[in-house]
Design a protein that fits this description.
The radius of gyration is 60 Å and the shape is rod-shaped. It has a domain at 14-124: Ribosomal protein L17 (50s Ribosomal Protein L17, Chain: A). Helix 2 runs antiparallel to helix 3. It contains six helices and three strands, in the order H-E-H-H-H-E-E-H-H. The longest helix has 91 residues, at 153-243. The protein is mainly alpha-helical and 244 residues long.
């Protein structure tokens, strides 16, 4: 008779089912909780609990050969060295004092969209113990850092003051440069004025020369006019003689 020989077939072949359960086991070890269908969660429970039992046996024994043997058996079933290392080195500590029942299954109310399969969440019963942080060392170092940081703002303020003073100095320098430029411009403007004032003095003799030339021209022109008048008078006398 086939009593007590129930297997979770999941509607797939043996090789597919073995790979599926191995992948689900690795995901559960890495994440601590996964969401899947109720049928796969129920099939995953015996597989992952047998792997946890191997990890507990490896931790309980002192024989190195047996530890390697149990680790290799887990690798052959889970097919992931990374997941087996985490299970044997970290997660096994939370199951040492627990005899079976390492996982918990929650049924979800909402079915899966598409095929309306019943969904569930499977997780480990206990969380992995967290390592306590060393507070004494950090607390002892913090005041030293604060003491080092307190004098630092002072030079920063002096730097800021120096930066504030530098614009004023630049403004003063620019003002001085502007005054110097204005003085140079005034000096350059004064020189042309002096030259302009000196030019009329030189121009006066030229004007006199021009007036002298004009007088000479008038003198030369007067004789010509008088000569023309004499010619006219001679011509008139000749005409009168001819008439007589």
């Amino acid at each position: 008779m086939r009593h007590r020989k129930h297997n979770h077939l999941l509607g797939v072949k043996t090789a597919h089912r073995t790979s599926l359960l191995a992948n689900l086991s690795c995901s559960l070890i890495e994440n601590g909780r996964i969401k899947t269908t109720q049928a796969k969660a129920r099939a995953l429970r015996p597989t992952i609990e047998k792997a946890i039992t191997l990890a507990k046996k490896a931790k309980a024994t002192d024989d190195a050969a047996k530890k390697v043997h149990y680790r290799r058996l887990a690798i052959s079933r889970l097919r992931s060295k990374k997941a087996v290392k985490k299970l044997f080195d970290e997660l096994v500590e939370q199951f040492v004092k627990r005899n079976g029942g390492y996982t918990r299954i929650y049924k979800l109310a909402m079915p899966r969209l598409g095929d309306a399969a019943d969904m569930a969440i499977i997780e480990f019963v206990e969380d992995a113990p967290k390592k306590k942080a060393k507070k004494k060392k950090t607390s002892s170092k913090e005041p030293v850092k604060e003491a080092k940081k307190t004098p630092e703002p002072e030079p920063e303020e002096s730097d800021s003051e120096a930066t504030e003073e530098t614009p004023e100095e630049t403004v003063a320098d620019s003002a001085n440069e502007e005054t110097e430029a204005v003085a140079e411009e005034n000096a350059t403007e004064g020189e042309p004025e002096a030259s302009a004032e000196a030019e009329p003095e030189v121009a006066e003799p030229e004007a006199e020369e021009d007036s002298a030339e004009d007088g000479a021209e008038t003198d030369t022109e007067e004789p010509t006019e008088s000569g023309s008048e004499e010619e006219d008078s001679d011509s008139k006398d000749e005409e009168q003689k001819s008439k007589d």
